[in-house]
Amino acid sequence: MRQKLLREGADELSYEIRGIVRKAEQLEQLGHRIYWENIGDPIQKHRRLPNWIKDIIIELLKDDTTYGYSHSKGLLETRTFLAHKTNLLNGVQINAEDITFFNGLGDAIAKIYQYLLPTARVIGPSPAYSTHSSAEAAHANHQPITYALDPENQWYPDLIDLRNKVCYNPNIVGILVINPDNPTGMVYPEKILIAMVAIAKEFSLFLIFDEIYEHIIYNNARTAPMAKVIGTVPGISLKGISKEVPWPGARCGWAEYYNRDQDDDFNKLCQTIDNAKMIEVSSTRLPQRAIPKIMTDPRYDPFLKSTSRAIGQRSKKLYDFFAEIPYVNFNLTNGAFYNTIIFKTGALKSKQQLNITDPKTAQLLENWLTPEMPLDQRFVYYLLAAKQVCVVPISAFCSPLLGFRITLLEEDLEDQLEIFTRIKEGIMEYCSD
Asked: Could you report the per-residue pLDDT of 79-91, keeping only the tens digit for each?
């Protein structure tokens, strides 16, 4: 082309969570059955919406008004309902104008980072959720700025690391918190969240809390929502229904703006995000209409509790299954759908292999491997080719650590056992090589 087309930040728009799917699909074409552990889609893992939720959706589909546009910010009645829910927490108080709907939280995340100055940076956790880290890095034309989550301390944030980076980098304007966390599956105690809010207050930053998993907490873990801990600090809470209903295909998420009146620049950011949304006319109407009906149904809270309890049981089963493996470090998770498994120092080496007898599969693997790829990515590709389990390397989550993420979603007990067994065998064979 006569001019360069792409900005520098485009190189950061990588997404191994879905990128590895292309390789798994190549194996499917050879006749292999793939065990999908790369993405947190409950529906893919045999989760079924209860009939009473389906009945609510079916009734809404019979109403002709379901098929029209909503208000650009979202349906007023649903935003009013959600604002009231937040206000019942007895923390920061909001109204319907402080809520905006998006076509999934990926849409919201993209717009938040898109309109920041390229020099304005939002520091996020490492390991990082790729949608956040890629969008933030792309807007800044630079690699993400991160604070460490410590696998030796239950994956809690390293508050000293966070404060030092904020203190010595004046370009940082915001802090991202994912709670419960993806990819580690950890839930942060209230005192840690309060400490993070204090850092934001000290340096006049705003906060982003990704709370998409706010109702998926188990193993007696305790935390607090952003609304209860944020005080007077400006912030955005990101929420949705894709995980807890679960209805990922609805593409329905929303942002709640807190303390807009505390800072003019933050208020302008929120207004700019809304203006960008208004250009698109509106977000999907059907799930917005369903939210109050589903969440006020007396069966909803017991449904959420049973969901969390089942995932918690799987987390304990996974812990028992992997605890005896000498090559990995393992934490029992307390929230979300995931566990991040880290290899011990020296467990991975550049020449390790798994046995692959099919020559066509071996050739595919040879095409995937490169000398410069991280050692955990190399392991993940071998695991996919030899054991047909599709997981994601932790190096793809903007982390110097080596490991992989597995989901806790498989509801079929036979498949669950098969997945755990194949991964365990893969680790033992690969690391003992």
From this structure: 999 999 999 999 9
Which helix (H) or strand (E) segment holds residue 174: the answer is strand 172-178
Find the angle CA(392)-CA(398)-CA(404) to the nearest 5 degrees.
Answer: 25
For the chain, how are helix, strand and coil distributed in percent, rounded to 5?
A: 45, 15, 40
Closest among 426, 323, 328 to 384, alpha carbons compared: 426
Q: For the chain, how far is it from start to end, CA to CA, in angstroms?
A: 48
Say which residue the tokens 């208004």 belong to.
Answer: 278
Task: Characterize the bridge pairing of strands 328-329 and 253-258.
Answer: unpaired
Q: How many helices (H) and strands (E) does the chain have?
A: 14, 14
Q: Mean per-residue pLDDT for 237-256?
A: 96
> How confident is residue 215, by pLDDT bands cut at 50, 70 and 90?
very high
Domain ranges of the chain: 8-47+301-431, 68-295
pLDDT average, residue stretch 109-114: 94
Classify 68-295 by CATH class.
Answer: alpha beta
Q: How far apart are CA 26 and CA 205, in angstroms?
A: 46
Helix axes 413-431, 375-387, angle to 10 degrees: 130
Q: How many CA atoms lie within 13 A of 92 on its CB side?
A: 24
Give the single-character DSSP code of 371: T
CA distance 303 to 244: 9
For the structural domain made of 8-47+301-431, what CATH number should be given?
Answer: 3.90.1150.10
Q: What phi, psi does 50 have (nearest 5°)?
A: -65, 155
Query: Could you give the angle at the alpha carbon of 372 between the alpha carbons of 362 and 106, nearest 5°?
Result: 90
Q: Is the full-model pTM beyond 0.90? A: yes
Per residue in 300-357, pLDDT (tens digit) is 999 999 999 999 999 999 999 888 899 999 899 999 999 999 999 999 999 999 999 9
Task: Please provide residue 241's backbone torsions phi and psi, each rounded to the nearest 5 degrees.
Answer: -115, 5
Token pair in block for residue 302: 């017991």
Q: Rounded to whole angstroms, how far apart are CA atoms 413 and 150?
A: 32
- Among the listed residues 422, 74, 54, the one whose alpha carbon sits nearest the alpha carbon of residue 251: 74
Q: Do domains 8-47+301-431 and 68-295 have the same CATH topology?
A: no
Under 8 Å between Cβ of 431 and 424: no
Please state, as a whole number, how many other Cβ atoms lie within 10 Å of the Cβ of residue 432. Answer: 10
